[in-house]
Each structure stands twice: as structure tokens, then as C-alpha cells.
Amino acid sequence: MSLFKRGKVWWYEFWFAGRRIQESTKATSKSVAKLAEVKRRRELEEGFNSVEDVRHLQIQTLQQVAADYLTSYGLRHKSATFAKYAVGHVVRLLGERMVVDIDERAVTEYQDTRLLEKAAPKSVNEEVGFLLRLLGDRGTIIRNRLKKEKTLKLKVSKSKAKAYSAEEKRKLVQAANEARSPHIRLCIVIAQNTGMRAGEIRHLRWMDINFDNLYLTVGRSKTAAGEGRTIPINPDLQNALLERREWFVARFGSILPDWYLFPGGRSNKLDPTRPVTTLKTAWTNLRKRAGVKGRLHDARHTFITELAESGVGDQTIMDLAGHVSPQMVKHYSHIRMQTKRDAVQQIWLKQQNASTESQATEQPQRESRNKPEARAKQTVRRPPASQDDDR
Questions:
Q1: Nearest Cα to 161, choosing from 52, 58, 297, 255?
Q2: Do β-strands 230-232 and 215-217 pair in parallel, antiparallel, or remain unpaired?
Q3: Cα dihedral across residues 266, 267, 269, 270: positive or negative
Q4: SS3 of 215, please?
Q5: What is the dihedral of CA 22, 25, 30, 31, to 10 degrees?
């Protein structure tokens, strides 16, 4: 047992499974510090002995485990960009700690640290998910304990999706025409007329555009149902794509089928062999310039809402949007208040018309009953009583 002081606080230092453990007890009392060291040793020993056949993994640092995990993840998934981003934060804060050293307290401390860094709760939840997967069986145990304590996931506020009005759509296109970004105008036109996701738009290649039969094919998608789906090209989108083709030839001299419509790199050094990384900055600037509130993804909500309002069947919507269930269609379809108002108004008008027709039918009958001859026929007069009757 080795205790030493730094300022007024006691620290402990010992070796465990070939690694040096040096931590603060956060205590100014030596007696309390001794108890803290004993407790810490016990925690490490219990964690190390909980899974007999993977002891060698328990003493690996999280940084070592993360490197192997990301290599495997990249082989099994089309994109490892977000995984690298999320695991990067985990390694930055916990990378030097051993797997056996991670417990429920470490997870909640990680959540608190990321929140202090102004990370979004949804992002923190995703990162914690990766952290627990890195821990393997130990992560499963920690997950169940946190779930029982209701501290596994941070509360996430539901994003308020919207459907853009016709005026808002017009403002976005008008602002895009004046934007400096070489990509945002075509992006907006595609989003508004196809309902494609931002990632699907960014990864469009020229081979995906069929100018002869006027349709495009979604190549890379978030879901299996989304990949390979075809979407018709309407006149607005056709004109935008033809303009893009002219711009492309002027910029790069030619067009190759596997080149991306949205080339990546800096504006003065664009590379058509790789797609643009993100459109978030261009979208943020465009939205502010247009004076419109919302997300780029809301253009997808708008497209699906307009399909639903037009009476298009669920199966057609699923084919166009790349959904796999009617529940997802319901999630994305936000029937707007004006459409709801019109529907209620139609019911009211129908009731009024039925009432008017009923009154029109009853009116001649009432007039007929009110005529003098009709009243005379309806009046029954008793003959005057005779004298014999009085007897």
C-alpha cells in the first residue's frame, strides 16, 4: 500500500495486472485514503475475475480495444465515419483506463463531462452505446445496471419536424440561386422534388442519372430499402440537372459516370472522384438568408407530406421514399393544418348541402298543405245535431 500527498489531498499508487494505478482519493484524511485504496483494489479484482476466459481483455486499455473495434466495424459497415467520431470522444476521455476499470460510475461521469462540453444528449447516448459495446460482456452488465437505475440514456427532446409551405420553398430556392456554395442550389431542388436524404444526395453519381428516361437511381442509402430505388425526374429537377451538367463540363472538361454530382474539396480545388463531406454549413447560411426556420431533412418531410395530401397510396410513398413500413410513412407524413382545415370544411359543406336539399324537398310539401283547398279537405265538419238525437 502506497499513499502520498499532493497538496492537502491523499493519493494512492499500486500495481495491478502489470499496470500502475495512480489516482486521487479526493480525501484530506489519511485514514479515509487507506479505505479508498482498499476499496479500489477490491473493485479491480472483482472486475478482473468476473469473466475467466477473457482476463487478458480486461486489462487492455480502452484505446487498445477501440482500435480493434473500429477495424472490425469498418469491415462490416459501409461507413465508419460516425463510429470513428463517437469512439474518438470515448477514447479522448477514457482511453487510458483499463476495461476492468470502467463501471457505472465511469459511464455517468462520461455523460456529465460531455454535457459540460455542450454535446447534445442524443450524441452522448450514441457515444455511450459505442462505449458499452467496446466493453463486451462487461458492457452488457453495466448496461443492465444503468437501465435498472434509469440512467442509461439521457432524455432527448424530440425534434419538431415540419413541412415547408409553398412560400418557404420558394424563398429557399430564391436564396439558393444567390448562394456562393456551388452545391446548395441543386441540393435544394433535389431534396424538394425527390425527398432524398442528405447523405443520398451527396453520394449521387452521374451514372445514377438517366436523362433519356427521366429518372434517377438512389445508390448509397441509410437503409437497405432505400438503395436502388428509382425516382422520376420532374421538369424543375431536369432543368437543374442539365444546368449542373453544363457547369460540370465547364469546370472539369468532361463527365465520367462514376464521378459525383457534388464533388468534395475546397471550392478552388474540387475533386469529382470523392463526394462533398457535408452540406450543413451551406444549408445554415441558406436558411438564414432565406429567413426560413427548419432543417434540410424537413424537405424530405415536406415531399412525403405533399404525396400523402395528394392521395398517393402508402406503397407508392414507401417506394419513392425508401421506407420499409407504413409506420415510417406515418412518422414522416405531417398532414398540414390547412389540409386538415379543408377536410373538416368539406365535411361541414357536405352536411350543409344535405340539409339544404332536405329543406328544399320539404318546402313544397308545406306549401301544399297550407293552401285553402288543402285545408278544406283536411277539415272535417260534423253535421248539425237533429231533434231526434236530443231525444
A1: 297
A2: antiparallel
A3: positive
A4: strand
A5: -110
25 close to 5: Cβ distance less than 8 angstroms: no
Question: pTM of the full predicted structure?
Answer: 0.61
Q: Pick the closest to residue 286 from 151, 192, 220, 373 (CA basis).
A: 192
Grid cell, residue 389, equals 238525437
Other Cβ atoms closer than 10 A to 5: 11
DSSP 260: B
Residue 373: predicted pLDDT = 58
C-alpha cell at 185: 442550389
| Residues 256/272, Cβ–Cβ less than 8 Å | yes
Residue positions counted in the chain: 391
- How crowded is residue 92: how many other Cβ atoms within 10 Å of its Cβ? 10
| Helices 280-290 + 166-177 axis angle, to 10 | 110
Phi, psi of 134 (to 5 degrees): -60, -30
Query: 462520461: which residue's cell?
Result: 110
Please report, for residues 96, 108, 132, 180, 206, the alpha-carbon distance to residue 86 in angstroms, rounded to integers and kept in the order given.
16, 16, 12, 31, 32
Of 178, 203, 200, 198, give the one whose Cα is nearest residue 188: 198
Closest CA relative to residue 43, chosen from 1, 105, 110, 109 = 105
The answer to whether the CB of 2 falls within 8 A of the CB of 40 is: no
Helices (H) and strands (E) in the chain, counts: 18, 8
Q: What is the average pLDDT across 178-183?
A: 91
pLDDT tens profile 215-251: 999 987 666 656 789 999 999 999 999 999 999 999 9
Could you give the CA distance from residue 58 to residue 44 in angstroms, rounded to a whole number?
A: 10
Cell numbers describing residue 121: 444528449
For the stretch 77-96, pLDDT in tens is 777 788 999 999 999 999 99
Please report the DSSP string for 83-137 in residue order. Answer: HHHHHHHHHHHHTTSBGGG--HHHHHHHHHHHHHTT--HHHHHHHHHHHHHHTTH
Q: Which three cell numbers stand for residue 104?
A: 457505472
Q: Rounded CA gap, 276 and 278, in Å?
A: 6
The residues facing 264 across adjacent strands are 271
Helix, strand, or coil (residue 182): coil
**How do the residues of the chain divide into helix, strand and coil, expressed in percent and rounded to 5?**
60, 10, 30
Contact status, residue 226 vs residue 197, Cβ threshold 8 Å: yes
Residue 325's H or E segment, with its range, is: none
